Amino acid sequence: MDIDEGIGGSGGDAGSGGVGGEGGVGGMGGAGGMGGAGGTGGTGGAGGGGGADATPVDTDCVADMGPPEVSSVGMPGKLRLIGCVVTPDKAFAGEVLIESDTLTCVGPSCEDAPGAADATVVKTHGVILPGMIDTHNHILFDIFDESDWSPSKVYGNHDQWPNEPRYQAMVDAKQYLNGEGTPNLDPGFGCEMNKYGEMKGLVAGTTSIAGAANPIDKTCYGSLARTIDQKGNDFPADKVQVSTLFPPSSGDTVCSNFLVDKTDAYVVHCGEGVDETAKKEFTTLGTSTNPDGCLYAAETTIVHGTAFGQDEFVVMADKGMSLVWSPRSNVFLYGGGSDLTKTTDVPLALSLGINVALAPDWSLGGSQNLLDELRFANKVDNEAFGDVISPAMLVRMVTVNAAKALGLSDVLGSLEVGKKADVTVIAGDASVPFHTVLAARPKDVSLVVVNGVPLYGDAVLAALGPAMPGCEALDICGAAKFACVAETGGTTTNKFGQTWTDITQILSSELETYDGMNLTEWEFAPLAPLVKCE
């Protein structure tokens, strides 16, 4: 969804990654039993079973419930995880070996692999999957939620709701904190806002986020989850370009970048809404550049496409374009919060071979994190689509499909030797691994590793985190966790040394200060919660 549109604020083009067609929709699957609601002490079920994909995903994993355990302690920087390993095509009882920032073994056993002898061994008793990738977020808005603004009516397209006075007041608050508004708070607290949003993702197993933070390329963005659309992404170059406004102002530059290999993925809002105005944006995308149609390319990833139908999706499929689906935000804005049909026709897109990723958009009416979005997408599939998207395909949408949409398939998105060591472990019944992922909440995430470094997980695994400057204890919906937020080498400029406590105290205080200025009739403190315990 567009941000700050018509109000003169953030949301310009950022950063600078291939795309491929992916997946299809198989036959109708049988309806699965509905899971329990899951409060702070339990996990809700994943809902319906989902339809079959073109190729069923095999698994030989067995139920192996229980907390993770460190069975032997080895050298720092080497970690051997044992559990149910999820790859794009199957899930199997096996192991993953991490050495430094790289996966060096993925298979039934890594015991005899070079480097395994002195690795720390963790019996996860859970599901080991690639670190999830959030392909679309407005991360600086994630300090807010729907209590700060909800649409006053059902809208037809993204140019309408930004005119609501309360929405504009919320944008003013965001801009003030980020040092881009009036009165000007220079340099602002964009570093803390970005870290808050990344932490929301991290505790839910998300290791990379395309967050469209502005101004671009601040040094402080290079912490916690990968800021995948900025230079601080721990890769040699940033080749993911993002446009949060439509029509984009940089189309010609993007097309030139395609030709010289400067941009591998262009992630652009288009077709957000349910009316003809939104639908016509696809034509505008093709005519707003010189030459016409150069953005109809395999490097282009469309965010939303809610208004698209057969004609638009046929072109996307023919050109190898990707699609990012954000159902909760769509329903929030265009379906009154309850009409599940007011979202992108994902079954049609999949049937044409379009690569589809799933993302939460923002926590202001969208999901708090990718786990929330997975559950909501499953609900939409079960209740509105006729249960045609399998749990395995939904998991692909936040892993391998997401990596393709960002042009990063060679380094992220799947557990394969040579790829970056971004790994998430989720507790639960490993005999049904994909259903377990769909049912999971942040309290069920037992370990998150980013670039080979354990940054979040169950308190019993806290010793895996960096010794310096140390990690913090967190309570996530009654579950004891650790989080390693502060980093060595911190300065007043890069703010790497900030703890989670520092970040939340600063943002809470500044929001209260803003409210105290009485610039608007509405108040925006306190901060939106890190997680919502349901």
Structural class category: alpha/beta
The number of E-state strands comes to 19
Helix residue percentage: 10-25%
Strand content: 15-25%
Unreliable segments of 5+ consecutive residues: 1-55
**How many DSSP helices?**
13
Can you give the mean pLDDT? 90
The largest β sheet comes out as: 11 strands, mixed
Distance between the termini: 26 Å
The Rg value, from CA coordinates, equals: 22 Å
Approximate shape: globular
Task: Give an overview of the whole structure.
The chain has 534 residues and is α/β, with parallel strands linked by helices. The chain has helices at residues 165-177, 190-202, 251-259, 276-279, 281-287, 310-319, 327-334, 346-351, 370-385, 391-397, 400-405, 433-439, 500-516, and strands at residues 58-59, 69-72, 78-86, 90-99, 102-107, 120-130, 132-134, 206-209, 226-227, 240-243, 265-270, 300-304, 322-325, 355-358, 423-427, 445-450, 453-458, 472-476, 479-483. Strands 1, 2, 3, 4, 5, 6, 15, 16, 17, 18 and 19 form an eleven-stranded mixed beta sheet that branches. A five-stranded parallel beta sheet has the order 10-11-12-13-14. A three-stranded parallel beta sheet has the order 7-8-9. Strand 18 (472-476) and strand 19 (479-483) form a beta hairpin. The radius of gyration is 22 Å and the shape is globular.
